[in-house]
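Sample intake sheet
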Amino acid sequence: MKTFKLKGLKIMSNKDDHVNTKQIDLIDGLVINREDEHGWLIEAFIDRKYWDFFDSIKEAEDLMIQVKITREENDPAFFLTEIVGINKIGEERMNVLFQGKIVDHSKRRIEQLLEMIIEEGYQGKSLLKKFKELI
């Protein structure tokens, strides 16, 4: 297993046939490469103000997240995940646990792929389905 510091987190979710991106302000976090069939585990330690947001997407399959690992200036890595846990910590904090697979492409390649799919008219769930087919 390899463990890294989580320095940035964006959630890319589908709602009403549109892809929404939400920046999450981190208190702390970890990214763990389990090096097994379960893939990667990402833990975000955050303010409880995000509870309703994560509660609303906790059942989503293939939730795309964008993370920055180790340093904020690093290029983001993309993961297809599912939420495996949401926990209250104390009165004002919470953590969210994601499990999934890294999308093993460079940032530029992913941007080009998404741009092409959007230009073809895909959006929402059909965009996500097409993206998964191409990666």
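Comment: The helical segments are 51-57, 107-119, 124-134. The first helix runs from residue 51 to 57.
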